[in-house]
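WARN no homologs supplied; continuing
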Amino acid sequence: FNSKAITMASRPKGYGMTRELDDKMRAKYSEDDEAEVVAWVSARTGRQMSGQGQDDFREYLLDGTVLCDLINSFELPGISCKPNSTSGIKLKAMINMKE
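OK structure emitted
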């Protein structure tokens, strides 16, 4: 009798089809496109991205404050985005992304 219970949660991340799909998505990622988008967003918002690559780009946009600044940079009548403070609360970051 094995005293250790094996559960599905004990599988390593990136196993099987999940790993294959992640690898396929990362293979399609273009750092040249990333650089072009970051340069444009930075020029409009003044917000620079620290780092480089898919994970850093995701982190740059994740809480929605950069996207809110980008929306506000167009100064469209009747359209504004007021980001919620995201200090430690993922729900507020999700609200920023939804609005």
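The chain is about 55% helix and 0% strand.
OK
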